[in-house]
Amino acid sequence: MSQELPSHADFLRVVGDVFDAADSAGVRTPLTLITCSDELRSGGYSSFSLGFRGDDTVREQGIFELRHPGLGTLHLFLVPSRADAAGTEYTASFNSLEA
Predict the structure, then answer these.
(1) Range of the domain at 46
(2) How far, rounded to the nearest angstrom, does the alpha carbon of residue 5 sit from its chain's CA centroid?
(3) Is 92:74 a contact under the CB 8 Å cutoff?
(4) Residue 93, SS3 per DSSP
């Protein structure tokens, strides 16, 4: 069964919100949505990326379960992209064929 994902506009509205995330081991941590890139459209495809920030523990890339009060439960592939004194950042990339 495929999962209906929120749209780019849906994510843009919740930048700054905290998601309750669980990694593949079930370890839960809060992740804040810090960026939602511009949506690029070309050749019948659209793409954008999301940036999340968590604590200073670097978790392995993989599918995370993210819960948000407005968007529901999502399963996204997150990749650690940066770690510094402010915490660890993760990126989720979206590429889709336009309808």
Answers:
(1) 8-97
(2) 11
(3) no
(4) strand
Name the residue with tokens 């993210």.
66
29, 78 contact by CB (below 8 A): no
| Dihedrals phi, psi of 11, to nearest 5 degrees | -65, -40
Q: What is the mean pLDDT of each run of 10 residues along the chain (99 residues)?
A: 80 98 96 97 93 96 97 97 96 89
pTM of the entire structure? 0.92
Q: Are strands 87-97 and 62-68 parallel, antiparallel or unpaired?
A: unpaired
One-letter amino acid for residue 41 of the chain: R
Amino acid 47 reads: S
Evaluate whether residue 3 is within a structural domain: no
